[in-house]
Design brief:
alpha+beta; eight-stranded mixed beta sheet; 32% strand; Nucleoside Triphosphate Pyrophosphohydrolase; two-stranded antiparallel ribbon; 10 strands; 5 helices
Length: 206
């Protein structure tokens, strides 16, 4: 895991795979460049990597079904910026509020490509952090119903990717997702994760 983190610290300073990689896990109606309008909301999310005894893993949260937006879906801890707060600070704060992890000051690695999500009119800014030995998690039940820790190797295994035709808001569309749980990992979270998976494939020479 340390080798991958060192790789990321250097790699994230260069041009990233970007939107073309995100599109590989996009629902069919997102297979196009989308013009970003003015006045979008900006959210910071935290992609937390940690060392498992065998496999490096990434942490996802399953949103509570009581929430109005994206309820019952996988996401990364995060949210909107409070006054006098940066996007990175918002992501770090939300991580602590949602699953009880207070990041050490040297945990941040860098940032992936932002993603605009038209249905919510949000620009998501994904930040990467590494916590070697993850502490006991303390979930905020109003927002988080479960935490899923996924080995990075599972993200680059093509057998874990499924494409199904869904009826979504009255349209039949092809939706790619990772089948790693009873709940599919799809949508904006999958698109962001696709870029992380691409970097992990690069690191492994695949």
């Amino acid at each position: 895991m340390d080798d991958f983190i060192s790789y990321l610290q250097v790699r994230l300073k260069r041009a990233l795979p970007g939107f073309s990689e995100q599109l590989k896990m996009a629902p069919e109606h997102r297979h196009q460049h989308i013009e970003i309008p003015t006045g979008v909301r900006h959210n910071g999310v935290l992609i937390l990597l940690h060392s498992d005894p065998i496999y490096p893993q990434v942490v996802f949260t399953l949103r509570s079904t009581n929430l109005n937006d994206h309820s019952g879906q996988f996401c990364y801890p995060g949210g909107s910026v409070e006054p006098h707060e940066t996007l990175e600070e918002a992501a770090i704060r939300e991580l602590h509020e949602e699953i009880g992890v207070a990041l050490p000051t040297d945990s941040m690695i860098g940032k992936l490509t932002p993603l605009y999500v038209p249905p919510s009119h949000n620009m998501i800014h994904p930040f990467l952090a590494y916590y070697r030995d993850l502490p006991e998690l303390k979930l905020q039940p109003e927002e988080v119903s479960e935490v899923l820790q996924v080995p990075l190797d599972d993200l680059i295994n093509p057998e874990n990717v499924v494409v199904e035709n869904w009826n979504y808001k009255g349209q039949n569309i092809d939706v790619p997702y990772w089948s790693l749980h009873r709940v599919p990992l799809w949508g904006a979270t999958a698109m962001i994760t696709s870029e992380l998976a691409a970097l992990y494939r690069e690191f492994n020479g695949k």
